[in-house]
């Protein structure tokens, strides 16, 4: 999982976010401790703590004094909203710009999307 080109604390935060999004880590469930994360990824606990703190600052995790970190209620929706925004900026906006260049409207794009999805449906099983 470790990508040497990116800060480790970001990778830790993204791994926790991914677990929340895919349902592995439910809302209100206890999140792994910084020591558990540090041991699992073989990193400094301070680095793991920085990734966790980033999620606390975003309201994704919250601390229960004396117990540990827990996933906040509504965290999945917040993360999904953030990811949708990034997805739209990274993929949809350039797609729309190119579609305008080609003279394609929303209905044309929808038809093309359905056609492509149908043609690749069996290839990702």
What does this structure look like?
The protein has 125 residues and is mainly α. It folds into two domains: 8-73, Arc Repressor Mutant, subunit A; 76-124, no CATH class. The protein is 62% helix and 6% strand. The protein has helices at 8-21, 34-41, 45-57, 75-102, 106-120, and strands at 61-64, 68-71. A two-stranded antiparallel ribbon has the order 1-2. Helix 2 crosses helix 3 (45-57). The longest helix is centred in the C-terminal third of the chain and has 28 residues, at 75-102. The two termini are 23 Å apart. The model has no long low-confidence stretch (mean pLDDT 93).
Concise account of the structure shown:
The chain has 125 residues and is mostly helical.
β-strand percent reads: 5-15%
Q: Round the Cα radius of gyration to an integer and report it.
A: 19 Å
What CATH architecture label of the largest domain applies? Answer: Orthogonal Bundle
Question: What is the first-to-last residue Cα distance?
Answer: 23 Å
Please summarize the sheet with the most strands. Answer: 2 strands, antiparallel
Mean pLDDT: 93
State the low-pLDDT regions, or none.
none
CATH topology of the largest domain: Arc Repressor Mutant, subunit A
């Amino acid at each position: 999982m470790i990508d040497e080109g990116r800060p480790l604390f970001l990778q830790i935060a993204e791994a926790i976010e991914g677990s929340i999004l895919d349902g592995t880590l439910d809302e209100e469930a206890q999140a792994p401790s910084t020591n558990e994360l540090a041991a699992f990824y073989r990193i400094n606990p301070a680095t793991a703590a920085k990734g966790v703190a980033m999620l606390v600052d975003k309201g994704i995790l919250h601390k229960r004094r004396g117990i540990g970190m827990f996933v906040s209620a509504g965290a999945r929706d917040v993360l999904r909203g953030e990811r949708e925004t990034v997805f739209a900026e990274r993929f949809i906006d350039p797609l729309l710009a190119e579609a305008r260049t080609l003279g394609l409207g929303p209905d044309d794009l929808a038809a093309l999307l359905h056609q492509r999805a149908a043609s690749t449906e069996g290839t990702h099983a």
